[in-house]
Amino acid sequence: MWRELLPVGRAPGGGYRRHAWTDADAECRAWFREQAAARGLTHEVDRNGNQWAWLGSPEDGDAVVTGSHLDSVPDGGAFDGPLGVVSAFAALDELRARGARPARPLAVVNFGDEEGARFGPACVGSRLTTGRLTPEAARELRDADGVTLPRAMERAGYDPEAIGADPERLARVGAFVELHIEQGRRLVDAPDDRPVGVASAIWPHGRWRFDFHGEANHAGTTRLEDRRDPMLTYANTVLAARKKARLAGALATFGKVAVEPNGVNAIASLVRGWLDSRAADEATLAAVVAEIERAAVERGARDGVRVEVVRESFTPVVEFAHGLRDRIAARLGGAPLLPTGAGHDAGVLSAEVPTAMLYVRNPTGVSHSPAEIAEEDDCAAGVRALADTLEDLACP
Ligand code: HGY
Ligand code: MN
Ligand code: MN
Ligand code: MN
């Protein structure tokens, strides 16, 4: 199963480029359909393009759903997302091997566009489904080439007019459990040897676009004192972001930038920088972003550069339902509870249905990189833990 998926969307350098509604995404979706068919599961695609593979009938309600996403960040790793979907199918196989007889419908899900690598906001498939992202706002999204989300969906054979909240579908879900590779080192650095942990919380986090408006000019004839160079303001803002975040014990990253006209001998007219910021609580996060914005505007005033900030997405703090979380941790023999700064579809779903996450140990902690790895034994432990969880929840 894993081997068929491994080469899909992999760039020559080893990183994955499985971005929403691209050919690589279509290949991942075809793989999901094949896995469902091979297991006699009923495959369906919901109005937002999320894929569901059902064991039993969703109309019976109170389903136990598991899964994750198959898309990636630019040059992402092999495990972030796919490990959760592959483990979900493998856990169903394990239940069948155990002769378990589910009394509730089970489903494996692939949520579309979790990383937001192409259009910006994260968790588009799950946020549309829960109403956290409106269809109007989603239809406005466009990628770096100016292709709108609706156009990309149409090209992939999906109807962008159908997208929107799906409360009837969510009403049939009694619990959602997402298995994910841990993104960080809490398990590997822990004193005891635990290959699987249980999520306790997801930090609040968001994405802000900073537009630095300067004045295009000739790099070879414009005196330094006559320049209005947005790159200067942007560079100082990146430094300020690191300083403010460190002082507040938060995280702030300018990981994506666009420059216009982006010519080696032209002073930029516009620099667009995307800030990803996260903190253990929403007040700290709001304060850090406000300080970074203030630093940008103040520096811009000195450089003759106008700064505009737009919040593109925000995910409030997620405290996973203690009942489900503690039941799973106990079923797994006292698995450790782990907070994380990484966003997940489970974080989005948790506002609507009882939700939990299992983390599989990451030996280096590295993620969102081709260097992301997980040990085979730990992945197998993750499948067993997920099967134990599904059996406990669905098979009385
Ligand atoms: O950005 C995140 O935390 C997630 O991987 N989409
Ligand atoms: Mn990710
Ligand atoms: Mn992920
Ligand atoms: Mn994620």
Automatic annotation (TrEMBL):
Zn(2+) 1 binds at residues 69, 80, 180. It comes from the Bacteria. GO terms for molecular function: hydrolase activity, acting on carbon-nitrogen (but not peptide) bonds, in linear amidines; metal ion binding. Signal peptide: none annotated. Binds 2 Zn(2+) ions per subunit. InterPro entries: Amidase_Cbmase, Bact_exopeptidase_dim_dom, Peptidase_M20. Keywords: Hydrolase, Metal-binding, Zinc. Zn(2+) 2 binds at residues 80, 115, 368. Allantoate binds at residues 207, 265, 278. Its cofactor is Zn(2+). Belongs to the peptidase M20 family. NCBIfam families: hydantase, PRK09290.1-4. This is Allantoate amidohydrolase. The lineage of its organism: Bacteria, Bacillati, Actinomycetota, Actinomycetes, Kitasatosporales.
